[in-house]
DNA sequence: CGCCAGGCCTGCACGC
DNA sequence: TGCGTGCAGGCCTGGC
C-alpha cells in the first residue's frame, strides 16, 4: 500500500468532499476483500451523515454517527472522488454514493484492502486495538525507540516495520529512514544505541513528513483522491536502487532479503 | 514462464 | 505451562 504518507494524503484529499455529506447509496461490486464487505452496508449507510474522517496507522476512519467505516488500502488500494455516474472500471469494488452527486470509489486490484463497519469505538476494533505509536506525534522520539527496542534481537528494519510497535512505516520508508540515519538494516534492534535511536526516530519523522508535504508519494500507481498521480519523481536514496551508486558516496547499493521483503542499503554509509 | 511488488494477519516452532 | 518472539505462508492481480 500506500504507506502512511499516502494514507494521510488520501485522508486530507477526501475530507472536504466527505465532511457533512449525507450518504445516498452504497454499491458493492465485489465484496471479496481481505475482510469481506458486509452486504448489509447497503441498508445501514444510506441516510447517514459523514461527520468526519481521520486516520490511525494506515486505517482510514469515517465517522458516520451511528457507527464507523474503517477502510484499509492493502497493497494496491486507492480512494477517489468521482461524479457518481462515472463508469466503473475493473477492480472498482466499492462506491459510497453521496447526496452531492459525487461518490467515493475504492479501487483495489489485489484485494488486500478492507471496508469494515463497526458500531463501537473503532480504536477498540481487533484490527486497530493493538496498533503501535503514531510516528508523527510527540509520543514517538529517540528515547521512546530506545526504550522499546531494548533486548530485541530482531533486525532494526523489521522492528521498524512492526505495526504493533510503530505504525505507518512500510518497506520503502523503512529502507529510506535507515539510510538517512546511517544504520545497517540488519543490526539487531537491541544493539542500536541511544544516539542512533535519536537519529533514526528523527529520520522516520523527516521521511514521512517530507512525502506528505510533497502531496503523496512515490508509488508508481498511487493516485490521490482527485485521481492525480502522486509525486513519483521523488528520489529515493536506496529503495529500488540495487547496484546503482549511492547518492552520497558512490558505492553500489546492495540488496538483500529480510522477512521476505527487499532491503536496500549502502554498505559504506550504513554501519 | 517465473518472479516481483506498497501490507498484514495467522499459525507454527522455539526459547526462556 | 505459558508467554513473547520470530519466521513462513497466505491472500490476490498485474507488470516485467
Automatic annotation (TrEMBL):
<dbReference type="InterPro" id="IPR010663">
    <property type="entry name" value="Znf_FPG/IleRS"/>
</dbReference>
<dbReference type="InterPro" id="IPR015886">
    <property type="entry name" value="H2TH_FPG"/>
</dbReference>
<keyword id="KW-0378">Hydrolase</keyword>
<keyword id="KW-0479">Metal-binding</keyword>
<keyword id="KW-0234">DNA repair</keyword>
<comment type="similarity">
    <text>Belongs to the FPG family.</text>
</comment>
<dbReference type="InterPro" id="IPR035937">
    <property type="entry name" value="FPG_N"/>
</dbReference>
<dbReference type="GO" id="GO:0003684">
    <property type="term" value="F:damaged DNA binding"/>
</dbReference>
<dbReference type="GO" id="GO:0034039">
    <property type="term" value="F:8-oxo-7,8-dihydroguanine DNA N-glycosylase activity"/>
</dbReference>
<dbReference type="GO" id="GO:0008270">
    <property type="term" value="F:zinc ion binding"/>
</dbReference>
<protein>
    <recommendedName>
        <fullName>Formamidopyrimidine-DNA glycosylase</fullName>
        <ecNumber>3.2.2.23</ecNumber>
        <ecNumber>4.2.99.18</ecNumber>
    </recommendedName>
</protein>
<comment type="function">
    <text>Involved in base excision repair of DNA damaged by oxidation or by mutagenic agents. Acts as DNA glycosylase that recognizes and removes damaged bases. Has a preference for oxidized purines, such as 7,8-dihydro-8-oxoguanine (8-oxoG). Has AP (apurinic/apyrimidinic) lyase activity and introduces nicks in the DNA strand. Cleaves the DNA backbone by beta-delta elimination to generate a single-strand break at the site of the removed base with both 3'- and 5'-phosphates.</text>
</comment>
<feature type="active site" description="Schiff-base intermediate with DNA">
    <location>
        <position position="2"/>
    </location>
</feature>
<dbReference type="InterPro" id="IPR010979">
    <property type="entry name" value="Ribosomal_uS13-like_H2TH"/>
</dbReference>
<dbReference type="Pfam" id="PF06831">
    <property type="entry name" value="H2TH"/>
</dbReference>
<dbReference type="InterPro" id="IPR012319">
    <property type="entry name" value="FPG_cat"/>
</dbReference>
<dbReference type="Pfam" id="PF01149">
    <property type="entry name" value="Fapy_DNA_glyco"/>
</dbReference>
<feature type="domain" description="Formamidopyrimidine-DNA glycosylase catalytic">
    <location>
        <begin position="2"/>
        <end position="113"/>
    </location>
</feature>
<dbReference type="Pfam" id="PF06827">
    <property type="entry name" value="zf-FPG_IleRS"/>
</dbReference>
<feature type="binding site">
    <location>
        <position position="152"/>
    </location>
    <ligand>
        <name>DNA</name>
    </ligand>
</feature>
<dbReference type="InterPro" id="IPR015887">
    <property type="entry name" value="DNA_glyclase_Znf_dom_DNA_BS"/>
</dbReference>
<feature type="active site" description="Proton donor; for beta-elimination activity">
    <location>
        <position position="58"/>
    </location>
</feature>
<keyword id="KW-0511">Multifunctional enzyme</keyword>
<dbReference type="InterPro" id="IPR020629">
    <property type="entry name" value="FPG_Glyclase"/>
</dbReference>
<dbReference type="GO" id="GO:0006284">
    <property type="term" value="P:base-excision repair"/>
</dbReference>
<feature type="active site" description="Proton donor">
    <location>
        <position position="3"/>
    </location>
</feature>
<feature type="domain" description="FPG-type">
    <location>
        <begin position="237"/>
        <end position="271"/>
    </location>
</feature>
<feature type="active site" description="Proton donor; for delta-elimination activity">
    <location>
        <position position="261"/>
    </location>
</feature>
<keyword id="KW-0326">Glycosidase</keyword>
<feature type="binding site">
    <location>
        <position position="91"/>
    </location>
    <ligand>
        <name>DNA</name>
    </ligand>
</feature>
<keyword id="KW-0227">DNA damage</keyword>
<keyword id="KW-0863">Zinc-finger</keyword>
<keyword id="KW-0238">DNA-binding</keyword>
<dbReference type="GO" id="GO:0140078">
    <property type="term" value="F:class I DNA-(apurinic or apyrimidinic site) endonuclease activity"/>
</dbReference>
<comment type="subunit">
    <text>Monomer.</text>
</comment>
<feature type="binding site">
    <location>
        <position position="110"/>
    </location>
    <ligand>
        <name>DNA</name>
    </ligand>
</feature>
<dbReference type="InterPro" id="IPR000214">
    <property type="entry name" value="Znf_DNA_glyclase/AP_lyase"/>
</dbReference>
<keyword id="KW-0456">Lyase</keyword>
<keyword id="KW-0862">Zinc</keyword>
